[in-house]
Structures are given as C-alpha cells and as structure tokens.
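Researcher: I'd like a structural prediction for the single chain below. Treat it as a standalone chain; there are no partners to consider.
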Amino acid sequence: MNASKCTLAPLLFVLAACSPACSAPEAVAPEAGKAGSGASSVQAAPPTPVPPAELITEAKGVDLTKLTDPQKTSFYQIINTEPSACGKPHSLAVSLRDDDACRDSLSVSQFVADALASGASPSDVKGALEEVVDSLRVREIPIEGRPVYGNERAPVTVVVFADFECPHCRAESPVLMQTVDQYRGRAKLVFKHFPISGHLRAKPAALATMAAHAQGKFWEMQREVFENQLNLEDDDLRTYAKRIGLDMAKFEADLKAGVGKEIVEGDRADGEKLEITGTPAVFINGRYYNQFLFGGSIAGWIDDALRR
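Model: Treating it as a single chain, here is the predicted structure.
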C-alpha cells in the first residue's frame, strides 16, 4: 500500500507503528487482537528457553537464507516457544513439522525470520507476534449492496474502508483497482465508507457517491470525489455528478431522500466493531492487511488467499 511506509525496525516493532495517517480522533483506545490495535499493555511472562538438545531445528518452507548463525539460533528459540498460529496445543516449530494444513504458522514463522534478518531483536519480534497472528484471523464483513469493482463472483474479496477527505485513501484507490485488474476476474474490490468525524465533508461526499451508485456509476463518482477532495461542497458534488452523466433530477431526489445513508452509517458501524483506527483499512478475504506478511503487498496477500 502507499498509505504508509513500514519497516521491521527494532523498538518500533508493532503494527501500530504502521497505522494509516488518516485517523479517527474519537476512537477509543484499541484492545489487543483488533484491527489496527497496538500491542497489549499486559506483558506475559517470558517463555522458558528450550534446551538446545530439545530444540526442533527444522522449519519446512521457511526461507532462512538471510539469517546469520546467531539469528538462526534466535529464530529456533522463538518458534519452539511460541504457540501455533492455528490455535493448536503445540509450538510453531511442531506446527511446521507436523501440521501441513496450518498455513498461518508458516506465514508467521516467515515473519519471524524476516524480522530478525532486518535487525529486530527477539523481544521485539515476540512483542509483535500477537498482532501478526491476529491479522490472519478471518473477520466477517458485510458487503451486500456495497459497490463492487471487478468480478462479483471472484474467489478473493478485497474490502477497503475509506474516507473521501483522506489523502492516503485517494492515493491507495487506483493501486487497489490496478491490483484487482491484474488478477483477471479472480479478485474483486468492495468499497465501504468510514467517514472520519473530523472530516466534515467526508460523509456528504459518501452520500453523493451512493446516489451515483443508485445509477450504476459509483466508481466514476468515487474517482471524481477523490481527485477533487479539497472541493467537496454541495455545488462541487453536483458538478461532478453532471460531469459523469448522472440523471440530475434523480440524483437530487435520492440525496434528499437519504438514499445510501443507511449503508454509509452501517459501514462506519462495521468499522467501529472492527476497531479500525485509521483509513484506508484493507481486508483480504477477511484478513487484516499489513506490510509484514506476504511480501508486504496487496498482490502478495491475494496470492496467499488464492492458495488457501
């Protein structure tokens, strides 16, 4: 994503360090295990190191070529003491060796290796693992009646929660659409509204796009609004509606009747349930996108979803 640049840097090694810049000022402090939340304030006791003779020193499918010998030692200590990413009663190391069906343990173990190779300390890596594992948890996100870009029957669904005054959402929108295009019908993009309260014209703009959606032109209106996001007064929105060829009488009537208001407010409520703290927030088949897994790209996450 273009919304932010994230690195696997020591001391800043939490998902919250990579949160989008367009944030919701009224959001409550996030709890651990929620989309966009920071690390838990409750510190678990450090695990007891596994004696070298008892270490499982194999990691099937994990690329360890960038690790130094000391980093490999740290890697094996971590995967032998941290639990399976699939909720099984054994370690990541056992999961890699014995549970081929648990793709999440493989992904999390690769994260551990990549993080250590980038210079993160073992304690930083362990501190981030809960968030990384939770990002792979599938969320149920309602999408019925929402604007869809691409093949509606595609096996991979990319959901973006966005705010029309957020510059990061504007930058990310064409990237998401171009990525979906490259999958030739195997992925689709679903737009959900998350107007931030400090952005006073975000909700009116959202309602205007839903009035356009009623005429089958959501994506055209969405593009106009993003491209002109510093000019979103009512007259500006009418200008964009005319530019894309909407029936203006119907557009005005739908705005007056509040067409789409229930969906816009419902999307915002859905985002709050997920404890989204900023926009854009992206989910791939219900999993919370971040730059620490699958090469850090939306395409990498889609590829992973297609392999499941």
